[in-house]
Amino acid sequence: MLDKMVLGSRLLLGAIYLLSGLTYFFGFMPMLPHVGMPADLHIKHAVVVEMIKTGWMFQSAKIIEILFGLSMLSNRAVPLMLAAALPVTFITFMLDALILDDIWRWLHGAATTQQLFAAIEDMVVGGLCGLMPHLWLMWCFSAYYRPALVWKATPGTALSAANTGSLVPQSGWLRGVFFAWGWAAIALQVMNFYLFTGLIRFG
Q: What's the CA gap between 202 and 99, in Å, rounded?
């Protein structure tokens, strides 16, 4: 069961990130930022606008997304790419997770309930759908990271990832959390994949 969960999570996450990265360069999701976008294209996050203006920051993030997507889909260098792409996933999550202003405006009557729900939806679809499965996959491949977490390392004494114990936690409640997290992450990815691919427009 675990192998199928990891496979599904890896393929869905990889497909979403590959599409997200490629659309910046080829513009097949015209409502998202892309190289040939019109000057008046609405971009909801000011920080994204500034990243694009640097000429390299946002573009580098998109290249990382493409490499990450290819890694997940091809099952090559997965532990490495999960670690390398985590900052991009975390920043994407934070851009959509900061909804305190939206809640505050709603409490003071400056925003409608519909607007508040839209902000919450952005947090889930735009941020949590990427971060949650990303972290869960890192948990699944945690044996590869444990040697790097030693407090005082000595060259040449790294532990073999194959001898660091079972992947699945043996404790009852932790085992339940592990599988619940995995299934919830996969369910979110399925929803996100459906919504994300619905943005594709050809011609």
A: 33
Residue linked to tokens 């997200």: 20
CB 25 within 8 A of CB 37: no
- State the greatest distance between any 2 C-alpha atoms of the chain, in Å, as a whole number: 62
CA pair distance 60, 64, nearest whole angstrom: 6
CA 77-184-140 angle, to 5 degrees, is 30
This model's pTM is above 0.70: yes
Q: How far is CA 54 from the centre of its chain?
A: 23
Residue type, 12: L
Query: Of 194, 68, 199, nearest to 134 (Cα)?
Result: 68
Average pLDDT over residues 2-8: 92
Q: Token pair of 30, please?
A: 């015209």
| Residue 159 pLDDT > 70 | no
Residue 37 contacts residue 27 (beta carbons within 8 Å): yes
75: left (phi over 0), alpha (psi -120 to 50) or beta: left
* Model pLDDT for residues 166-184, shown as the tens digit of each residue: 667 777 888 889 899 999 9
Q: Rounded mean pLDDT of 71-90? A: 95
